[in-house]
Amino acid sequence: MSKPKLLQKVEVDFVLFATVLLLVAIGVIMIYSASSYSALNSSMYNYDDMFFLKKQGVWAIGSIIILLIIEKIDYHLLKKVTSKLVVVTVILLLVVLAFPPINGAYRWIRIGPFGNLQPSEIAKYVIVLVLAKAIEKNGDKIKKFIPNFVAYLLIAMFFAGLVYIEKNLSIATVIMVVSLIVMFVGGAKLRHIVSIFVAMIPAGLFFITAESYRYKRFMTFRNPWKDSQGVGYQLCQSLLALGSGGLKGLGFGQSRQKCYYIPEPYNDFIFSIIGEELGLIGCIFIIILFIVLIQRGIKIAMNAKDTYGMLLAVGITSVIAVQAIINIAVVTGSMPVTGVPLPFISYGGSSLLFNLIAMGILLNISSQGNK
């Protein structure tokens, strides 16, 4: 086998590349629309309606440039740096606890004028790298519940546990779900996967009831209108936004719910602003883009030239898919409110950066796949 080259000329999956760029562009535009009112009327943002647009725009341009570099680097080189990435990620997940909490959660490391770094965004991809490398190395040994399957499961639980300590149960859940998907595709027995999913149900209920605010959210989502001015407020406003949009929407920039009704509408609940301004048609278009992205990711995994590439493609695609499904389900009231951003669209520089780095890796896998 030839040694991996650092930089190489590649022919990538153009449909995936175009879909990702379109999602990023829509995200930057909708962040401006969703944030302009609150930014214009706040001294915190210097009364600048383009405050969030400028920050997200800079992150988007920088992240796309990095994507274009990453997609030319042989993904096999990731094996050599996986151990170092694990060490750095664990350190960052611990360092974040030293910073003051924001809204009760320890999720961000302040990095001056560049914004905040969210270590959990790195962790959800690093676990994919770890599992892909280990499963490829050990082959069919994953079929044995002890020690291999349990060992992989403990690694995933370790990362999920560190993220949970930061009061981020949602991303911890994403890590566990994505890990089980990668393990299943990697050859784990279905009964082992099902048994863990079944065990996660009581564990999830325990973690939900461990914090009073989580329990209130869990109980309220069934009928948010019972406490529309309390715990159910955010979900009720989201549903009002989606309902107001109708089929075609109120028009770009015409959202009423972004005017201090939905707290921070440019973050996790930006999909409801899309529904209000662009209507059901806009929402369906966004969902179709994610379906296309997932389909291309699956195709890249199926055509990957080796097990490592296949597992990386599955893991990266699963991270985006699971987050998109959870976010849209939360915004539409299909599951309890939880803090999972909509990939490529919700405001957040570090989230966008690491998602686009992952897309760069996925594009490189596509360039080396079986045509």
UniProtKB/TrEMBL annotation:
It is found in: Cell membrane. One of its GO terms (cellular component) is cell division site. Its EC number is 2.4.99.28. The keyword Transmembrane applies. Pathway: Cell wall biogenesis; peptidoglycan biosynthesis. This is Probable peptidoglycan glycosyltransferase FtsW. It catalyses: [GlcNAc-(1->4)-Mur2Ac(oyl-L-Ala-gamma-D-Glu-L-Lys-D-Ala-D-Ala)](n)-di-trans,octa-cis-undecaprenyl diphosphate + beta-D-GlcNAc-(1->4)-Mur2Ac(oyl-L-Ala-gamma-D-Glu-L-Lys-D-Ala-D-Ala)-di-trans,octa-cis-undecaprenyl diphosphate = [GlcNAc-(1->4)-Mur2Ac(oyl-L-Ala-gamma-D-Glu-L-Lys-D-Ala-D-Ala)](n+1)-di-trans,octa-cis-undecaprenyl diphosphate + di-trans,octa-cis-undecaprenyl diphosphate + H(+). The keyword Acetylation does not apply. Belongs to the SEDS family. FtsW subfamily. PANTHER family: CELL CYCLE PROTEIN, PEPTIDOGLYCAN GLYCOSYLTRANSFERASE FTSW-RELATED. The chain crosses the membrane at residues 12-32, 52-70, 82-102, 145-163, 169-186, 193-210, 278-298, 310-332, 344-365.
